[in-house]
From TrEMBL:
<dbReference type="GO" id="GO:0008237">
    <property type="term" value="F:metallopeptidase activity"/>
</dbReference>
<protein>
    <submittedName>
        <fullName>Uu.00g035200.m01.CDS01</fullName>
    </submittedName>
</protein>
<dbReference type="InterPro" id="IPR024079">
    <property type="entry name" value="MetalloPept_cat_dom_sf"/>
</dbReference>
<feature type="signal peptide">
    <location>
        <begin position="1"/>
        <end position="19"/>
    </location>
</feature>
<keyword id="KW-0732">Signal</keyword>
Amino acid sequence: MYSSNTVIVLSLLSAVSGAAPTASEDTAGRYPSSSVEARDALPGISWLYASAECQPWQYDNLVRAFTDVSQLSIADNAIPEGNNPEFEDFFGQGYTGNQGALFWEIFDNLNRAAMFPSTGEGGVTPATKIYPRCNDVANHCSSQAKVSAYTGDASLYSGPPGAFIVLCPFFWTRDFPHLLDRVAGTPTNSLNSLMTQEHIVLHELMHANAISYGPDGGAYDILDLKSPLPGESDNPNIPGSISSVAVYGVQRCKKFAAKGSPNIRTRKNADNYAWFASGYYFSKAWGVAVDGGENILPPAEDPTGFLEVNDGTVYGDDLVEDEDV
């Protein structure tokens, strides 16, 4: 199943657990250059499958993405207040009283996922490893258009215990930028255009049962939820708000968060975490509110296509109906 820390602010390196390079800093030498170095630097990851299935350039990109996903974590001394605009956008308002603990639970979940590749959380046995893969072992990459990735139980596919994350062909052909490359590029307030390789990896890590979620170490899974949302439909013949839709993307995640005060079910939806983490990261790094609409700049202003809108990218994990429908 597909079940997935202070965002590292480039101008506030003291607030993060791992020093991030500035926008102008060369990243050469930052990433493991051999399989042994990758194993040692990322104890939560096993490269057993990736080294056999992926092309060398794909392998190198995965090492980089699983290294830098920690940039989307939020250190304890930099967790935003509950009225932070990015937090309210994706998790709602009102985490007070008996729900105050859920506020901290959200950041615990986020940090467990973002830091797992680098720390392993004790992941020294196969049962607590994450296995990146390039082969579509569960045939989910072709289940619909524009599937970027999915997560599954490795033991169900004749593999060792643990979770695998498949990066689908669309992940590679779409050429998503890396987080540190994108933050060094042109700032924009259009969050929807800021999907990076590390963003996708974080979404998938939120699902991995090996990481363990909830106050008792596994009270619930973090899923891809479906829910009726105002004005949203996956079928052009069905008006919005009637049928459940996959809660993917900036707009739908925000609408889902607005369904309660707060909507505590957002803590069970992987894309709410991924978009919050990306929005918070870029907002802090650029010093601008990265919460705008899904605008696309004219080609003359964006010749590289860096600011192209997230064009319907989805995930290949099983969708689960939200319980409050």
